[in-house]
Task: structure prediction
Amino acid sequence: MAHPLFDKHQTLLAGALEAIRGRGYWNPYSENPASYGDDAIEEGRKAFSAYFDAQFYLDQPGVMGRVIAGHSPFGLALDISFPQCSPDALIAAARGAMPAWIRAGAEVRAGVCAEILARLNERSMEIAHAVMHTTGQSLMMAFQSGGPQAQARGLEAVAQAWGEMKHVPESVLWERPQGKNPPLVIEKRFTVVPRGVSLVMACATAPTLAAYPALFASLATGNPVIVKPHPAAILPLAITVALARQTLKEAGFDASLVSLLVDDSGTPVAKDVAVKGDIRLIDCAGRTEYGEWFEENARQAHVFAQKSGVNCVVVESTGDYKGMLRNLAVTLSLHSGQTALTPRTILVSSEGIKTPDGTYAPEQFGRDLSLAISALLEDNARAVEVLGAIQSPDTVTRIDALRELGAESGQVLRDSSPLPHPQWPQARVHTPLLLRIEVSDRQIYEEERLGPISCVVETATASESFAIAERIMREKGAATFSVHSVNPVMQQLAEDVAIRAGVALYFNLTGGLYVTQSAPFSDFNGTGANPASSASVVDVAFVASRFHVVQSSRHAG
Result:
């Protein structure tokens, strides 16, 4: 079925597919704010400010009340009221919208999804302010990761899904020779059939980046989507849903193919909705115990879970000691360690770190890393841009608890302290906490602790460092594994560990590339091969698991 939106975006989709196959750098959505106009930042701020102390409009069925979003991590009062709808009403509306969306076919669905993403891109600065004031990210990080990078992940999912569905022909004539008799001719038709209603649950620290791959993978494969934001980060996804519904309606489809389900922290609804029979796909991002609950209890659905893990760093040797320290300092500080990619446990052997300038003992490395973090953050204006704000007060409590635990069980290499924000006096900004932990204190360094918290652990040998890292990553899961070594034997050992643990490996990062960055169309975010994730964003399984193929056969002629 032809549709003008597929014609409009066909070249973009083909380019996206080519980028997926090549895995080089490619992003059709500019990450330079200047590309969006000289006044884009201010216009985005004004659009964002218009939501304050107002009701967010969504024409959805089953409205039962409203949920109010309160304060931003930067201390700004939002007071935005969102419609709270009956889950059963949203599910019923989603099911009713499915038949026409299925019949439209893969090309039409891909074109409509690409149009939604194009319109989201036009409002990147508005969404950036919304992401900033719900997650605590600095404005530029919120713009890049919450805007163009999230949109690119969404397009990657659409293109990957379109490519897989293209492998299924609409119809064929099947002919089997029968000797002297006329051949047996069967007409076979194949229909891509979605699993059913998709529930997408986003986390508080990266709502659009976490939700867009799942949202667009499900929608492109024919599944209607109910988006369930974290109660603290509703606005970015409310804007997304509103724009998606408008685009679908203008394209001739039922807006109920995408809807917003909100709750507050006092009356959570996700678990009740997830076990309903009509929910056939679940995507969730968050704590390990949260993801495991859905995997164990929502048996009627296919669950894609991105969970927490313990990302490890092994430091054995380096050709650029100061560059390594600078890279680690940025990595541990960026967005106050509130990402699933941030390293938590840094393993250094008592044999020391071998460099061209000599060998550095673990104690010296700990002091030097502390000084590198302090140097990075010594300018207050730069520091708040790197750190952003702490999304949840619970993270501040966690910092305080780990400080006490570190003082009792090890050594505080660098204490965490509040940092005043020059623009937002009420912002929750805290510098990183760096601990030195004994190798015997496994209960400290083998647990994921979201926030600006990391620890240096001294081992007996480099081989023990790798063994501990492997055990942690296999038992707890991890998204990233960083290794600093110029020794080919150690590099081979690291690759073996990464393969056995199923974790992405990064070698000797000393420049402007950080382990916390994941590149759309190039990097697989997560592997699905360890406890931290049951899926990889965005591989073939991430999209192909969202649909079946049903065939019909009849005699031809």
About this structure: Residues 4-22 form the longest helix (19 residues). The radius of gyration is 25 Å.
